[in-house]
Design goal:
single chain; mainly alpha
Length: 71
Amino acid sequence: MVNVLLGLILFYVFFRLITTLIIPKITQHKINKYKEELEKENQEIINRKEKRNNNNIHPSLKKYYENKDKQ
C-alpha cells in the first residue's frame, strides 16, 4: 500500500515537472525557430509592412521616427 502511494506521488511530481517546465520550453523553442525561419524567407514582406506602418504616424510624431531611421 505504501509503495502504491509513493508511486502515485512520484508519478504526480514527474508529471507536473514535465507539463510545467519541459514541454513549454520545447514548444517555445519550436515557435522561435519557426518565426526566425519565416523572417528569413519573407524579408520583403516584413520590410513593406514596416514602411506601411510608418505612413500611419501622426505628422507631429513623424519627425521622431525619421530621426530613428537615420541612426
